[in-house]
Amino acid sequence: MQVVSLNPQLTIKINYMGSNVKVGSTILGDNICDATSDTPMMSWFMWARLRSTFLSRIKFLDQTCCDEDDDEIVEGLKKMLAYEAKDLAVDGWAMLCKGNKIVVCDLGDTMLTVMNEYEKWKESAIVKGFDQAFKDHHEMLSRSIYASKHHPCCALDYPCNFDKVPEIVKCPQCYYNMQKFVTFRCHHDILDDEGSN
Fold it and tell me: Is 121 contained in some domain?
């Protein structure tokens, strides 16, 4: 990773939310950024809260007769929840926020590429601001990545007892229709791991 020289008036805060013990230890040891607890239980709770928020939002939109396909919050939550898939969890993901607004959220390698290509968009950052220039460069880069259909597998889980499981869901990465599977999942291993420590 290359070091990027940014505007000295720009303050960037980084927070690691993963469950990788090695990464968490390095972050804490080198004081690179803030890190949440690196226990699998904390990671599980984060994803559980996101799933709960996602399902609550869909129910709310259904009750108010709004279309979830046009809802920015649902789309953002779908994208976040797709990162929980094992294929994506290995590579990681990153989110750029400004205040309480999410500017960009994507896979870690794509976000890192945008940062490493800072020289290509730094003039735009002076004119448009860091967040908008980052977003513009990210969108340009994403179009070329997803046009080739080479992105990791995305998954989006709906509980089987949920009132409104859609027949068709578009991939939050490439926007093609996703395949539908039935999955059986057990989470007791996380609780057992916690209990044995």
Answer: yes
